[in-house]
Amino acid sequence: ASAHHMSSSSSSSSAPAGPSGSGAPAPRPLQYTLRSRAGMQSFATTPAAGDWGAKLETLHSGDSRIFEYNKIGTLLACVNQDAIIIYKANSGVVHRVIPRAGVHVVAFSPRSSYLVTWERLTAEANENKDNLIIWDIDKPEPVPLTKFTHKIYSPESWPPIKWTDDEVLSGRLVPGEVQVFLGAKLAAVVKRVKLPYVATFAWAPGPAPYKIAVFAPEHKSNPARVQVMTYPELGVVTASKSFFKADEAILRWNSTATAVLVQTSTDVDKTGKSYYGETLLWYVSADGSFTENIVLKKEGPIHDVCWSPLGKEFIVTYGFMPAQSTMFDLKARPVVDFGEAARNTIRWSPDGKIVCIGGFGNLQGSMDFWDVKNAAKIGVAEAHCAAICEWAPDSRHFIAAVISPRIRVDNGYKIIRFDGTLVFEAPVSELYQVSWQPAHAGAYPNAPLPAALKDAAKAPGSPALAASPAAVPAKPAAPSKYVPPHMKHRMAEASASPDVLHKDTNAQVKRYTADTPKASYPPGYYDDEDYEDDKKKKGKGKKKPAAQKKPEPEVEQITQEVEAVEVSSTPADPQKRIKALQKKLRQVEALQQKKATGAALNADELSKLATLQSIRDEIKTLGG
After folding, report:
1. Torsion-angle region of 496 (φ positive above 0: left; ψ -120 to 50: alpha; else: beta)
2. Is 487 helix (H, G, I), strand (E, B) or coil?
């Protein structure tokens, strides 16, 4: 397959020397790997040289089912039909070989001491048991440390064994609890986090003290709950939040481990506004000092949520298309609105200075690149039908790929600079996977953005203004069609243009200030800040009827006088009056018997009981 800007192949991954006589170190090359029908192939490039298609011949495999980099990009695991080969990513030298056939997916532990593998349950391969294996790959000959039976693989919850960043602790979800182990010593449970119907958990990033967040969905009449605890006191809850409308949840910690975002979803939207259920977002601080429902100003689903790598803010893309994207601070207050557009994906650059907000999947693949600090759009690009999109570790290049089997034609990838410039494009027949080689923090210089970009974002003809609604000529309104009454409220949001979902409808950026009023809760919103307290207080917050409140002496005296006047008033027909008094007498005598049994009477009942003698006297006067 031909490729634009492709240079000659290279067989070495070492960085080229710097300019002659300059003494400056050569720029660190970028590496990316792809997997296609032809197998796995890695490429190394120096962006300044533009050799984006330079192959690494030492990192090539014709038989590859999947590949996986470790967290810092030093190792590359390639899963073949009969074995797992772990390469040293920079040199292509084989590091470890695990002879195991039928492996479906793999994952490195945070410090690459262990490798988790999963294979389908079959009678021939694993006797329908022990298909999840943890391997010790620190040893020259990897050995299985522990095996579990794990029936279903889910990309959202992979891997089922989760470690802290330093691998001191690990956790595994089992029915009703999270089992905590010391590192890879998975034969002995050291702690248990018990929560009925617990469905997912996540360790906070960083070193000790180790924090863990757990989530349990709502069950029958009980609300869903998220709890945060700190090891080793896992029985002490430091933060907790209860809420409804939560069948599933995704837990997202920020990089500083001070807060976790809980994105909840339901299978069914009872309002009927969305086929895909209902989504909500909750903010929970790790110390329990602040919990908040993130109130979003546009109705509709939450498409994506992403923390900044610096952990100080997060962006949410939400609402019916065209969706709204808003950045919030650590107090869950909106900071910047990026406008409305057909977007559903958020990708922060590793240095946190740029964010790409794109529309992928069933959208057209449009991307906006934003200078976060100045809330300025610095570039736009398109990658039609792309399903993979991620930043390079240098925070200056972005890759987008169209892959099989989702789309079986026009497979390939693009490499785009952060200002929207296309620097490389290559078609690949039956492309399945593509990924940048990760790098540890500080591997690339943390250079400021060019000042020219900030000025260009405000200039005529800039990317930010190019997508302005004024630049798109208005189309004549389509002929009116019959709309059922129950659909009118939804059709009112749509434009007459048939491609409304693929146009930016608002390129204006809104910055929030301290004086900006906070979004109000929607009508009918119920905030159960503490569900247990809410149940205890149920009924206490209701106002009691006036009769339940003991009247002041003066009021009681006036009430008795009024009732006495009422009782003593004689109607025109004495017999009717006698019948009414006899009925009232029976009621008052029943109260008298109730008091005799020791039952407590309220103020209203006591006042009625005080009229007993006056009723009898009036009946006697009337001859009853």
Report:
1. alpha
2. helix
